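Saturday, quiet lab. Running sequence design on the structure tokens for the scaffold JK sent over.
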């Protein structure tokens, strides 16, 4: 058993592995990252130090932050509900719907998601604890914690083990074989976006049943009953109770609740897809996981996640998941600390010449959107190979190169290697086809270390 995952069985998802033929992903993360074993160990130690610093400094300002967030969310929801009670005119209905939408977004992203990660368990507040918080969506918090905190965050982007890679609906990597049903991905993607809370809820229900060994056709199993009890309460609350309380405004309130839920779903979907599926969020094989150390687990999170640029308001509305890299490194540290953590993580990326995958929200989603539609097609219809397409990667890209970290003098790491590979291939395409239009460029959306920085020297002073 590797040191990071002690107590977590490597074969926990064995049945899923047998069903999938993993063809190409990162098998040797050190070789792909152009780091030596000592480099990875030192990187892990630096990240452990960041965690220790944040844990030691948690206190009053974090306590105030989460309590203020809860108050804000509740004020917005009450104000929205009250406005809809008296929504005789269109401006009042629009205002009520807008307030309710923001309340649902904040509850889902900054409260439900992060509290269920245990980010505030250190306060020992029974009302703000991962084991007691039940969020405002159709799925149960307990089933989500099983599927997300355990499966996704432990097995992040390991093909065949992390079921969040496409959520079992979309083919998001060439490491998964193409099937005719993938042709429907563009339509399935729209349905998933509009009903994202239901997609997640059903995904989590399936994960819980698989873990419990419950037969799929056992409709009266305990996981099924838990799911339908929670879903029934949500449907009754939003589409029966509050519309009935509105009296003559039943229809307007029903429509407002539906609109708020759909807008919350679309926003949550966009944030999640921008953090997991742009170019540069890499995939890994089971072989990589089997011998993985804690430091290599850190490295897998850095290479398998993506950020998007956001100001304070957008960051807050995203649950601070615009810092997805930092969240995956430290999923149980308070979300309000991720911005300051990102400064230190980015400095480590520069020090070790690693890519720091980020970009605008629009750019990151366009890259994910392209992959959804591109991989709906059979591989033989695509002119890029699975080894040089921008949405997939492997250490085989660098076959024959020195990939063990520091050579003589300045470090040449993964960021530099990707930049050189991109320049070389662009030159080759220009010679073969004329001017390059920049589509499908490997490493799109990746921020790399400045060439003027001497990472070896920076490392000596760290």
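Result came back. Writing it out in full:
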């Amino acid at each position: 058993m590797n040191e990071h995952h002690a107590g977590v069985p490597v074969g926990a998802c064995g049945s899923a592995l047998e069903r999938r033929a993993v063809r190409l992903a990162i098998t040797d993360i050190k070789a792909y990252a152009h780091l030596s074993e000592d480099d990875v160990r030192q990187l892990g130690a630096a990240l452990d130090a960041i965690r220790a610093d944040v844990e030691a400094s948690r206190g009053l300002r974090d306590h105030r932050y989460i309590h203020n967030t809860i108050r804000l969310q509740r004020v917005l929801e009450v104000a929205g509900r009250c406005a809809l009670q008296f929504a005789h005119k269109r401006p009042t209905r629009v205002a009520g719907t807008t307030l309710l939408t923001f309340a649902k977004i904040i509850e889902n992203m900054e409260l439900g998601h992060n509290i269920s990660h245990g980010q505030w368990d250190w306060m020992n507040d029974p009302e703000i604890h991962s084991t007691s918080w039940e969020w405002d969506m159709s799925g149960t918090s307990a089933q989500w914690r099983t599927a997300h905190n355990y499966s996704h965050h432990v097995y992040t982007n390991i093909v065949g083990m992390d079921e969040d890679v496409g959520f079992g609906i979309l083919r998001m990597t060439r490491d998964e074989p193409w099937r005719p049903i993938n042709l429907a991905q563009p339509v399935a993607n729209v349905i998933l976006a509009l009903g994202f809370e239901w997609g997640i809820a059903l995904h989590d229900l399936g994960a819980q049943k698989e873990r419990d060994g419950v037969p799929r056709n056992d409709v009266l199993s305990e996981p099924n009953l838990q799911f339908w009890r929670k879903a029934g309460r949500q449907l009754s609350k939003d589409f029966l109770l509050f519309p009935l309380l509105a009296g003559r405004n039943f229809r307007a309130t029903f429509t407002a609740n539906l609109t708020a839920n759909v807008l919350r779903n679309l926003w949550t979907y966009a944030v999640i897809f921008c953090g997991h599926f742009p170019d540069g969020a890499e995939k890994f094989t089971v072989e990589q996981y089997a011998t993985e150390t804690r430091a290599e687990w850190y490295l897998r999170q850095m290479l398998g996640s993506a950020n998007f640029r956001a100001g304070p308001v957008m960051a807050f509305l995203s649950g601070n998941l615009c810092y997805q890299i930092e969240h995956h490194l430290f999923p149980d540290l308070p979300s309000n600390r991720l911005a300051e953590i990102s400064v230190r993580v980015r400095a480590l990326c520069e020090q070790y010449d690693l890519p720091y995958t980020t970009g605008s929200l629009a750019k990151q989603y366009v890259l994910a959107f392209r992959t959804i539609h591109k991989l709906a097609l059979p591989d033989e219809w695509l002119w890029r190979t699975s080894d040089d397409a921008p949405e997939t990667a492997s250490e085989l890209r660098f076959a024959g190169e020195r990939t063990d970290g520091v050579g003589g003098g300045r470090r040449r790491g993964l960021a530099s290697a990707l930049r050189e590979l991109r320049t070389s291939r662009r030159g080759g395409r220009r010679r073969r086809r004329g001017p390059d239009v920049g589509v499908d460029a490997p490493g799109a959306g990746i921020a790399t270390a400045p060439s003027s920085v001497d990472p070896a020297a920076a490392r000596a002073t760290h």
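Notes for JK: The first helix runs from residue 14 to 19. The CA atoms of residues 31 and 399 lie 10 Å apart. Ask whether to fix the surface positions before the next round.
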